[in-house]
Amino acid sequence: MNRTSIGTVVTLGLIFTMGGLARGQQRVTTHRSAKQSSTIGLMRSLNTAEYVYRRNFGHFASLDDLLYEVNYIHHSKPRVQDVADDGTDIVPELQAVVVFSPDKDSYALAVYDKDKDDRGYAAFSDQKGVIYDGWPLQSGGDNAAHTADINLVRTINTAEVTYKWKYGRFADFDTLNAAGLIKRYGNAEVTFAKSPAVLPNLQVVVLIPAIQDTYLIAVHDDSVHGAPYSVFSGASGIIYLAEPLH
User: Greater confidence, 13 or 143?
Assistant: First the structure.
């Protein structure tokens, strides 16, 4: 089946520019709540910290290293075990998660807004520095134009559970694909290329850490010119519909 087609560490502050456009479930937001603005601000700080760390040490870092080894993100939280995998509330009601590749040359970030009034809002990013607004997929809320992308993420989540049950660990996209656990896109069986450019105009990254005990999924669909669309998920199984921050 064919488809057409950074220097200076910023001290974390919780007052950021309001505004922007976020979409999920065909939902448009014309302004951000204070906590949503803080979510974006924390994401920017994490991206900046990662690049400063790589400039100084030659590779990207875990959240544990950013918080406690070099203190690039200013905070008052005590050190907890396995913070890099489980995430931590750097500030109240904002859970930050950093997953970086075994070669420490790439990373994925997620910041989850746990304020109940913000209905599950989250932000995502990676080493490219683009930040995405994300909203959880609601039951029966599939966007018909992107059903194939959403179902692909569901398939990857299922494949991860199957793979872990069999081998005791999670796996990246290429490993899952080679194991025959991912075969379809839309209504057809396809032959996926190696990640990230698995199909024309479709980028898929499943990032896992060296210990292979968690993962973050990013699917980027550029098939509609001028209207990029992304879907994110992770070990929680929750799927987020997203678009680049405006």
Answer: 143
